[in-house]
Amino acid sequence: MREAFYQLSTVGELRVFKKVSIFFEMIKFEHSLFALPFAYLGLFLASGGWPDAAVFTWVSAAMVSFRTSAMALNRLIDHEIDARNPRTRGRALPAGMMQRRFVAGAALVSVTLFIFCAYRLNPLCFQLSWIPVALAVLYPFCKRFTWASHFLLGFILGIAPYGAWLAAGRNFSWVPGFFMIGVTAWVAGFDVIYALQDREFDTASGLYSLPVFLGEDASLLVTRILHGLALSAWGIAGLLAGLGGFYFAGLIFAGLFLIRENWLVRTFGLARVEQAFFNMNAVVSISLFAFVIIDLSM
After folding, report:
1. Which range, of 23-27, 138-142, 189-193, 226-230, averages the lowest pLDDT?
2. Predicted TM-score (pTM) of this structure
3. Domain span at residue 10?
4. What is the CATH number of the domain that holds 121?
5. Is residue 110 within 8 Å of residue 65, measured between CB atoms?
């Protein structure tokens, strides 16, 4: 009896582990690297260096839990669209590898954790916590009625440096404001690139995106303009924050990767979208944060 019980327990644990693994793969959990460095950037600048350990922990937990809830909601709300799209029908929900109620439960738990983290940070963060949650719910519906969804996604991630700034107990400032503008433009730009993959499907399905509205060439031009705006906003933020040569060296480094990202898609087309979208953008966010740390440490 005891051996049978242990075997059943092991099988149950393996099933749970597999389900959790599928869920994390479905929401691309590792892509938290896009947003976390900019949240840390705002936190470190607000603190003038290394922040309080407790604040750092709660900001980290808030960022990861929020992104998890947002991605789970996105997959849940877009379930039927993903099932019809040849590119996405292999995702966990359309493919039947994940149940909707499990994803809904995970989203609810993650939202609750995010709000709790905001509560533990300070009253202002708690009072404002409904804003990113509301935007995360709205975003998946936007493609049904407007091509501006790319900019809403950018703004959702753009909140990260400002939210972390407030988490450190600071008040209004244009420093995180310009970082927010930069992140918004940067994310909107690479989301336009990503949307190029679905242009034909979106057109046939009556869905909205900038590539559907403008076509491929004009959309890529908009992306280049947005990424130029992002670099300019980050440059202004650095000047306002009094950052020095190391930060601006990092900004140039990030700019080179943005140039390469746009060059890859313009030269090789959609075959290089995955590399442009994932690899390049992870380098941009991590390197910019790293150079801020170096600058603050000097």
Report:
1. 23-27
2. 0.90
3. 2-297
4. 1.10.357.140
5. yes
